[in-house]
Amino acid sequence: MKKKKFGRAAKIGVLALILVATAVGFSFGNPDLTLKSKYEKGIVKVDYGTPVSTDVKTYVDFSRASDKDKKYILKNTKIKYDGDKVEGTDYDKVGEYNLTIYFEDKKFKTLKVKVLDKVPPEFTKTEDKSVFVGEKDVDYKSMFEAKDNIDQPEIKIDSKAVNLSTPGDYEVKATAVDKSGNKAKAKAVVHVQKAEYGAAGTYVYVDLTAQRLFYFEDGKVVFQSPIVSGNLSAGHGTPTGVFAVNNKTRNQKLKGDDYESYVSYWMSFIGGQVGFHDASWRSSFGGTIYKNNGSHGCINMPTGSAAQLYSMLKIGTPVIVKYGGSPYGVTSATGAPAAPKQEEAAAQAPTPSQPAASNTTPSTPETTTPVSDKEASKNYS
């Protein structure tokens, strides 16, 4: 029996059928898995705050697959992802993770997922600052505050341009850097002022806005300290004006209608009502504490600072209490702060029968009486 031979035309016909079947998506076996071109290098970049997809259709290229092949691939493809979610969210922390694709129960490919933080910090505070010639340890960082979408950024200060020996306006630069290396920049101005008060140039200046006390000798800052002044929200704001130290005593008990506090160092400058003293019951000073948790009108100080000021002050030393500005709030034509003469402050110094001149009156007078060591343990302020 003779074997039939396929003619050339028959072979061409079979080949044509195969090509047509391929074109319409017909496969003669199980389909292959193909990833989208952007994932061929094995890297997936995701912005922080965006959930990482574990949907097969995100990564697999179905552009040339038939419906039958697509169903097969979806049924036989699994994804395992080892991300680390931010608590309470559906997105991951910044970092690198593995996303492994399995096809027909075999590992097909592992993609490296990189969750990236590209958002720079944002400055929420850029505040100018006034200081005095000769002042040391200026807190430039307090001029700036910044926030970040993930963590608290580090603020780096460049104050090289500031000359604390010469009056003038100087620029301070700040750079906020988050843990991902994103940066933001800001600028503020430091106003260096010449401090003069009378011939001797010795006085205490209390800046209620900055919540800071400065002690000058011969026109130079020789001591400074953070403070807490009178509670504004309770109506106990510290009186402002020009006064003089009228008394210095140790180990006193301050009494009011609703408090009783023991202090080791008492330096009054408005009768026996308002003065400087240590406040051992406070854990922090400065800032905006005074607005809602201030004193009854006195100037609260850290114990060490109160002890140092006590050792330096003399009765009759002028005391200026103001909300910001230069030592006396008046600027001369040369830009140097002018001030009342020494005798002006002395004239306003309080006497037992005459309270010091001021712009406000303390709402809760403080009085002092000696206390024993047993009483010293009490504290209600």
Name a few traits of the molecule.
single chain; 381 residues; Immunoglobulin-like; L,D-transpeptidase catalytic domain-like; 3 domains; five-stranded mixed beta sheet; 22 strands; 13% helix; 35% strand; elongated
In short:
Residues 372-381 have a biased composition (Basic and acidic residues). The protein is mainly beta and 381 residues long. It folds into 3 domains: 37-116, no CATH class; 122-193, Immunoglobulins (Immunoglobulin-like, Sandwich); 203-322, Beta Barrel (L,D-transpeptidase catalytic domain-like), CATH 2.40.440.10.
CATH class of the largest domain: Mainly Beta
Which structural class best describes the helix and strand composition? mainly beta
Estimated radius of gyration: 38 Å
- Average residue-wise pLDDT: 81
Shape, principal axes of CA atoms: elongated
Q: Can you count the helices? A: 6
Instruction: Give the ordered list of helices and strands.
Output: HEHHEEEEEEEEEEEEEEEEHEHEEEHE
CATH topology of the largest domain: L,D-transpeptidase catalytic domain-like
Main β-sheet, spatial strand arrangement: 13-12-11-19-14
Approximately how much helix is present in the residues? 10-25%
The CATH superfamily of the largest domain bears the name L,D-transpeptidase catalytic domain-like
Say how many strands there are.
22
Strand residue content:
25-35%
In total, how many domains does the architecture comprise?
3
